[in-house]
C-alpha cells in the first residue's frame, strides 16, 4: 500500500464487503485486509477435498453459510441486484423441514396454503400467525434488518401492519408456542427448528423474534434460497464490484495487533466484537467486551454417495432441514448446550444442495452435504457420532452413504474465520437485549473508538447474509468522516464514482 488510504476494512465478510463497495462507489480509496487466503468470510465456497475425495471430483463446500435466507429481502442486496450480476438464487419448493420419528415430518413449503393444508388441524393457526408476516415480508425484513436506532423506510401503513404482525407473533411464540397453542408436533417443532437458529435456550423472546422473521421469509416469493454453484458467488460479485470501483482486497493479511493496521483516515473492523476489542485501547476495549460470547457450532462437511434417505420423502423438497426431533427434545438439547454440556441429541442444521442444483454433483456423482451441530462454546469435540445417530433416526441408512466427512470442531472454527472465536458463529450471544445493544448499549453501535468503526454481525442487525451492518456503518462514516451526505447508487450499471 503506497499511500494513506481513506478507509481500511479488516475482514471481507458480507458486511465488510458491502461497506467497502459503498465507500468505494462514493469515491473513497478503500483497501480490504483479509486474514484468510480467500475473501468472502462466512460467504465462501471452497473445493471439498478429503483423504478419500480428490479435487478432481469437483466438489465445493460452503465453508460457513449455505442458505442466504436474508439476502432476497435485504435492502442492500435488492439494490445491488445479485441476479443482474449473474448470481442465481434457487428457490426450493419448501424452505425448511423438520423430520420427526415414525417417518413423519413438518414441512414449511414456500407456498403458505400448501403448508396450511399439510398441517391439518394446525393449518388455520399457521395461516393466522405467518400469513400477515409473509405478505409483509419486505417490511418485516426492513424492520428486522434496521439499525434499531432509526425508523426504517417504507409505506407507513404497510410498515405499521408488519410491525404489528411481528410483535404479535413474537409475543405469542415466546409465551405459549409449546404449551397448548399448537396441537400437532409437526407445527410445534417446525417453529422450534426455526427458533433454534438463535443457538440459545428455547423459548426466549429472541428465539421467537427470529422464528417470526425467518418464518416470514420462508413463505415469501424467494423463500430460503440456495445459490447455484455455491454461496461464494455472492462474495465474488461483491469483490468484482469493489475492484471495478477502485478498491482492493489483500488476502493472507491477519490483523492481530494495531501494528498490523496500515494508516488510514478511517479503520473499519468487520470482525467479532471480542477480536476487535483486542485491537483497541481502554476504555474502548472494555466496551466491546460487554457483548457475551455465544455458544459454538461444530461444522461437518459430508461427502455422500447418494441423497440423504429421509424416512419421509417429502423432506427432500426443502433446502434446509432442522434435525432435533420434537420441540421438547430440542429445548432439552439447547438447554444442555447453554449450560456448557454436549447434548446427547444435538440440534443439527443440514442442507443437501445437489438436491436442488445439479451443478453441485461431483464428476462421479458424489455430493456435498453441509451440516453443523450446536455445541458448547469452545468445544473441542468431534460430534460426528452424535450427529449421525441423530440423522439415523430420521434418515435410516445415512451412515451407509457417507464416503467421508471433514469435521471442524468449535475450537477450530476460528482457523477458517477469526470472527468465529470458540465456534461462536453469531458474533456474540443472541438475546433480545443484545440484538439492540449490540455490541453494547450506545446511541451509535458502529463507532467504537475515534476513527474506528465496527460493522460485523456483532452490531445491529446481527447475524445473517444481508450486508446491512455494513450499510448502516457506511452511512455514518460517509456523513461524519467524509461529509458525504448520501449513500451512492449500488445499481450494477452505475459504475461512475461520485468524486474522483
Ligand atoms: C457453519 C456456519 C453456517 C452458517 N449458515 C448460515 C446460513 O445458512 N445463512 C445465513 O444467513 N448465515 C449463516 N451463517 C452466518 C453467516 O455466515 C454470518 O452471519 C455472516 O457471514 C456474518 O458476516 P460478517 O460480514 O459480519 O462477518 P464474516 O462473514 O464472519 O466475515 C468476517 C471476515 O473477517 C475476517 N477477519 C476476522 N478477523 C480478522 C482479522 N483480525 N484480520 C484479518 N481478517 C479478519 C475473517 O477471515 C472473515 O473473512 C453461518 C455461519 C457459519 C459459520
TrEMBL record:
It comes from the Bacteria. Pfam families: NAD_binding_8 (PF13450). Gene3D superfamilies: FAD/NAD(P)-binding domain (3.50.50.60). SUPFAM superfamilies: FAD/NAD(P)-binding domain (SSF51905). This is NAD(P)/FAD-dependent oxidoreductase. The lineage of its organism: Bacteria, Bacillati, Actinomycetota, Actinomycetes, Micrococcales.
